[in-house]
């Protein structure tokens, strides 16, 4: 087996001039990121700002039209296979198989990343227990509630013990209790050294979790810093207020065409 | 090379054996669904049997002289037609995975890019083996008699499965290009239906107009049906079998890379 460790970098995620166009729309327009390992970084922005597209590029699902990005020093385009061994991905589009049971879904992923049948089952049961799904493990996922689905999605992205976790709007549509639980999970993961990049439309969520926040509008980073700094700088308490102060327009007018692009996939 | 790096050991590419294991794991995922929903077995059993009954008892007398004589002719044709139509399910199944986001989950994993596609094809070919066995059984009850040997009958099934496996890559490629499962269904149907009917699968091509005969003679469905028929009830075997396998090799060579490329580029 070919093994390379030489590229390993302390920075978990870097991006330089990352750009992605869909037809005439520029969904991501020259984004720069520098995310230290073991931290939570929040991408904050309204629908269609380019958050999901950014994550899809970093998670090797689509290629950038321009610019460069790395995960722990591995190029997401040229060294996608190495990057995929380091990342986990959870989002509304990275789903599990609804007709399989929760256990089968997790075992399948374990088998795919090369664990033995015994180890894959052990890891799956461990994750089901951790996410309060032990009892539901033998039921088809289509019978799960929204919250259970989301917990299984997250469990699925943790099977391979990723160093970098992408969470695309992880709490959208969750009730407050499930949201608080997910936040706790994210904190536990960071405590164990995992880097988390999460996108959210809620300033409160970014506030709760992220040490650094980048506010995105129309594919560009328009402000970056700690949430305290952003609030102080803009005098806003919600994304709407921060956004209005930064852009002069509300969150709803942002790149409608881009929104369609992201929704259509 | 420096040993100070704190990073984990990462492989640079998927080893061939790993790719095979990944394909098998994903094929299991498609087949295990039958365990959860045994009615799926009925789904892909009813249609072939219905086609066989309708063709033999409705058209048999008019087309083949008698239902029994026609049964001897048409069983191989129905087997081929049914197998090729299954590739439509393969393509719509993959398109559904793209639609629902399961493919995104897979594509973010360090697995071979062709594994999700090959796995679905493999699983559907396995289902096809069941359908062929069923058609043999129902055909036998209806009075079909293989004039050759058990070995030849098995070879006929094997030939159809191998060619279906190759042919499926065309539909999978189409599935990767089309926006959603509905479009795959429509486009695939419009392609498969004429292709199977302008062949020698159901009738001798000699009564077709000249231009159609010319097309029909080169139609891979004709060759595959003739090859399977030769192995089952006698007739030319070598030429249609070899030509079918050449077609199969060509389909895999051209369309498997195209399908994988389209899968990788799928946003």
Textual characterization of the structure:
- The complex is a heterodimer of chains A (265) and B (267).
- Chain A has 265 residues and is of the alpha/beta class.
- Chain A folds into 2 domains: 177 residues, P-loop containing nucleotide triphosphate hydrolases (Rossmann fold, 3-Layer(aba) Sandwich), CATH 3.40.50.300; 66 residues, no CATH class.
- Chain A is built from 10 helices and 11 strands.
- The longest helix of chain A is centred in the last third of the chain and has 16 residues.
- The radius of gyration of chain A is 18 Å and the shape is globular.
- Chain A starts with a strand and ends with a helix.
- Chain B is mostly helical.
- Chain B has one domain.
- In chain B, helix 2 packs antiparallel against helix 3, helix 6 packs antiparallel against helix 9 and helix 9 packs across helix 10.
- The longest helix of chain B is centred in the first third of the chain and has 34 residues.
- Chain B is elongated, with a radius of gyration of 21 Å.
- The model of chain B has no long low-confidence stretch (mean pLDDT 93).
- At the A-B interface, strand 1, helix 2, strand 7 and helix 3 of A face strand 1, helix 1 and helix 4 of B.
- Strand 1 of chain A pairs antiparallel with strand 1 of chain B.
Amino-to-carboxy terminus distance of chain B: 37 Å
Give the oligomer, counting copies of the same chain as homo and different chains as hetero: heterodimer
- Helix proportion of residues of chain A, in percent? 25-40%
Average of the residue pLDDT scores of chain A = 87
**What characterizes the major β-sheet of chain B?**
none
Major sheet strand order of chain A: 7-8-9-4-10-11
* Beta-strand proportion of chain A: 15-25%
Number of domains of chain B: 1
Instruction: Please work out how many helical segments of chain A DSSP would assign.
Output: 10
Number of strands of chain B: 1
Mean pLDDT of chain B: 93
Rg result of chain A = 18 Å
Reading off the top of the CATH hierarchy, the class of the largest domain in chain A is best stated as Alpha Beta
- Determine the structural class of chain A based on helices, strands and strand pairing: alpha/beta
Shape of chain A: globular
The tally of domains of chain A stands at 2
CATH fold name of the largest domain in chain A = Rossmann fold
